Amino acid sequence: MSRWFSLLVFVWLILGLVAALQRGYLTHPSDNCADFATVLLNVVAGPLNYIGIHPSMSDCVLPQPTP
């Protein structure tokens, strides 16, 4: 059972990676964390990208260290 689940997760992530490649997200290095988060969301969304889901991040705030 866990073998099939692992295979399903692997195929899911590969389909998300292919969708991110097709959208051109991996052709240039990310400039900020919002670009990185958009790529990550597309990979995690997997095959949902092909039914109209278009996850994206418009703003990203990183925590700052205390002085």
Task: Describe what is shown at a glance.
With about 70 residues, the chain is an all-alpha fold.
The arrangement of helices and strands along the chain is HH
Largest sheet: none
> What is the rounded Rg?
14 Å
| Portion in strands | under 5%
For the residues shown, what is the average pLDDT?
Answer: 86
Tally the helices.
Answer: 2
Query: Can you tell me the residue ranges where pLDDT is under 50 for at least 5 consecutive residues?
Result: none
The separation of the N and C termini measures 50 Å
Share of helix among residues?
40-55%
- What is the number of beta strands? 0
Q: Quick one: overall form?
A: globular
Structural category is mainly alpha
Question: Care to describe what's here?
Answer:
With 67 residues, the chain is mainly alpha-helical. It is 51% helix and 0% strand. The protein has 2 helices and no strands. The chain has helices at 2-22, 33-45. Helix 1 packs across helix 2 (33-45). The radius of gyration is 14 Å and the shape is globular. It starts with a helix and ends in a 22-residue tail after the last helix.
List keywords for this structure.
67 residues, 2 helices, mainly alpha, single chain
